[in-house]
Specification:
Sm domain-containing protein, 4-stranded antiparallel sheet, Sm, 2 helices
Length: 96
């Protein structure tokens, strides 16, 4: 094995060790490539098929709202138009 092949093998081995251990530490505690390789969580909901359609949303605090879905993001923040909010049996239309 040539010196160049040995060096390549050592570099590959070092790279594999970094991947297994989570990478080298950098200033600020960030790991090598952590931000680049960070997997983004994908939503299990495909809300794109509900765009411009009437939907009803139940929030964790017990509140509910319905309206026309105009937009959303990866964090499931929603933009609703013509929204009606339901509060424990009381209905109120939100006008903006």
């Amino acid at each position: 094995m040539s010196a160049q092949q040995q060096q390549q093998q050592q570099q590959q081995h070092h790279h594999q060790q970094q991947q297994q251990s989570g990478g080298e530490r950098r200033e600020g505690g960030a790991r090598d490539g952590e931000q680049k390789d960070k997997k983004r969580k994908e939503s299990i909901l495909d809300l794109s098929k509900y765009l411009d359609k009437a939907i009803r949303v139940k929030f964790s605090g017990g509140r509910e709202a319905s309206g026309i879905l105009k937009g959303f993001d990866q964090l499931l923040n929603l933009v609703l138009d013509n929204t009606i909010e339901y509060l424990r049996g009381v209905t109120s239309q939100l006008v903006h």
